[in-house]
Amino acid sequence: MPETIIRAENLTKKYDDLLAVDGIDFEVFKGECCGFLGPNGAGKTTTIKMIHCVLPLTSGRLAVAGMSVSESPREIKKMIGVAPQEENLDPDFTVMTNLLVYARYFDIPKLEALKRAENLLKFSQLEEKRNVVIDQLSTGMKRRLILARALINEPQVLLLDEPTTGLDPQARHLIWDKVRSLKKQGVTIILTTHYMEEASELCDRTLIMDAGKIIEEGTPVDLIKKHAGEEVLELDYDEKVMSMLKEKFPDARLEVVGERIHVFTNQPHGVFASFLESFPTKSATVRGANLEDVFLKLTGRNLRE
Amino acid sequence: MTASHEREGFGLPKLTYRVWKVWRRNFDVFMKTFKVSFFPPLLEPIFYLAAMGAGLGALITQSIEGQSYIQFIAPALVAITIMYSSFFECTYGSFVRMYYQRTFDAIIATPISVEEVIAGEILWGATRSLIGGSIVLGVVAAFGLVTKPLITSPLFILVLPVAFFSGLMFSAIGICFTALAPNIDFFNYPQYLFITPMFLLSNTFFPLTLLHNLPLQIFSQAVLPLTHTVNLARWALFGSGDLSFALSIIWIAAVTVAFFVISINLMKRRLIR
Fold first, then answer.
1. Tens-place pLDDT, residues B216-236
2. Whole-prediction pTM
3. In terms of C-beta distances under 8 Å and separation of at least 24 residues, what long-range contacts does A105-111 make, across chains too?
4. Are A232 and A275 in contact, with CB atoms under 8 Å apart?
5. Which of A120, A163, A246, B124 would be A148's cystine partner, CB 3.0–4.6 Å?
6. Phi, then psi, of B99 in degrees rounded to 5
7. Mean model confidence pLDDT for chain A
8. Domain limits, chain A
9. Do A102 and B110 make contact, defined as CB atoms within 8 angstroms?
10. Which superfamily, per CATH, for A4-219?
């Protein structure tokens, strides 16, 4: 059995008229990368903030390494690294000083802090930017520095709240590389993201949240298999085609998205190919099912904001 | 594990040595911008002493409690700087750190608590008063060499603890406004309705007794913190001799403790939701 490092039981956060987190139960295991997925307002960030002890719980229990977040916030915060969604680097300082001042908050002795900061600058590929003030960094560099800062206390648990939002593909892949290498070092990672590709790339396990509840949980591969099958057929909408598909794939889920039909089925690989051989259609494409299909199936296509 | 914990109620802050780490962060920023934070405050009291003390004072031949006009306003200038330094640090300065830079959010993700962050801000505000008060004290002393002595008591050095403790008071009051401020423009209210009246009506540029308005005098003594800082600064610089300075010390101590506790609780209410 894997060792549990975070355990939530009936975890609830209520604001005046909003139930942000609605009695959720979950576990995070040591050394895994666990993804919290969900549309805006699902309760992901609220959950993260309760884990790192800056938001009090309304009710329920939440323990990190066996310690209650309400009783031992300092001890827990010592062993957690946080890369928040909103950039909050210290604009009055340079890159290097940001790391050193942050180390001081953790009581890390000066010499040790210098050593760690050097290593983290190397790790985050910011060595050449050490004396640059925050204003002059690109978004990608800022995200890397936030990640480096979150590692200054050599945390056992790393919380990454939308670590790649707004980054270009190059910067995103660099962050992914860093996350993978941290996972290899045994750091437990909790990640929230809107990008299903990111979750598939990085997460061992994902929890899908919506409206304050966890609505599904599993490895990305299992979830895709369970909810979207192996392949998805997409083709232009037409009533005749629609009725033909219904006849041909009675068990399939047909979804009309704008002008296109999406066909999901539990049948094995290749089933659509043989269908298209007998009914060639120009507009048809067959693609592998992905986590985005799962996400949209479970949380719907309505806009949340 | 406890079952739950709701937002904590009003209470006395629990503080550790970590308060100093917050103070140190602000100190480091101040040292980086030393030139702009040090020299302009040096010039302002010189202008006031020249324009109001030497200039306007030349028209005023009547002595005020045995002092010339420039002697009367010199300790007030020290006190005003004490007020400005901490009040603005803990309103505009703290608001920028809290709201625009999210510095507080970054710090409370470490083992430092919200209460310690706010206590650190207040301590830093008081330090700004100490620095500002010292600068003006030096200017006043130097100016006195040219005109007539503006410091006659050997107790003048007590202006420094007066600066620090009054600074704590003005910082704590400032943090209360910051905790309630929906946006940065909100500070126009305390600036024009609280700071400016104090600047003018706290026995600063004329003794309030001149107005023969008893309610105003009582108001000034009872409600305006600057009155007491001015009183103490005047006592320290000239050893005025009466015992009202003791009353001012008690007044400042009581108000400081009260607002320290209130400010931290208001901030907790704002930041921990």
1. 999 999 999 999 999 999 999
2. 0.92
3. A105/B18, A105/B21, A105/B107, A105/B110, A105/B111, A105/B112, A106/A78, A106/A152, A106/A153, A106/B110, A106/B111, A107/B111, A108/A152, A108/A153
4. no
5. A120
6. -95, -50
7. 92
8. 4-219, 230-288
9. yes
10. P-loop containing nucleotide triphosphate hydrolases (3.40.50.300)
B4/A59 CB distance under 8 A: yes
Distance CA B197, CA B209 (A): 16
CA distance A8 to A300: 26
Residue-level pLDDT at B2:
40
| A203: phi then psi, degrees, rounded to nearest 5 | -90, 135
Which of A56, A80, A97 has the CB atom closest to B5's CB atom?
A56
Separation of alpha carbons B138 and B134, rounded Å: 6
Residues belonging to chain B: 273
Mean pLDDT of A38-61: 94
Subunit contact B273:A63, Cβ cutoff 8 A: no
Give chain B's contact residues with A (Cβ, < 8 Å).
Answer: 1-8, 18, 21, 24-25, 28-29, 32, 101-103, 105-113, 272-273
Number of A/B CB contacts below 8 angstroms equals 83
Q: How far is B152 from chain A (nearest CA, A)?
A: 42
Token duo for residue A218: 């599993």
Residue type at B4 in one-letter notation: S
A41 has a chain B CB within 8 A of its CB: no
Going by their DSSP bridges, the two strands A231-236 and A260-264 should be labelled as antiparallel
Asked whether the predicted pLDDT for residue B25 surpasses 50, the reply is yes
Q: Which two tokens stand for residue B21?
A: 């780490």
How near does any CA of chain B get to the CA of A102, in Å? 8
Tell me: the pLDDT tens digits for B40-81? 778 888 999 999 998 999 999 888 888 899 999 999 999 999
Does pLDDT of B187 surpass 90?
yes
**What is the rounded distance in angstroms from the CA atom of residue A65 to the CA atom of residue A155?**
12
Instruction: Give buried/exposed letters for A276-303 (b at 16+ CB in 10 A, else e).
Output: eeeeeeeebebeebebbbbbbbbbeeee
Mean pLDDT of the A14-35 span: 95
Q: In what order do the strands lie in the sheet with A188-193?
A: A80-83, A157-161, A188-193, A33-37, A205-210, A213-218
* B64 bridge partner residues: B67
Whole-angstrom Cα distance, residue B143 to residue B141? 6
> Which chain A residues are closer than 8 Å to B7 by Cβ?
56
Q: For A63-120, what is each residue's pLDDT tens digit?
A: 999 999 999 999 999 999 999 999 999 999 999 999 999 999 999 999 999 999 999 9
β-pair partners for A233: A263, A286
Domain A230-288 -> CATH class: alpha beta
Contact A95, A117 (CB under 8 A): no
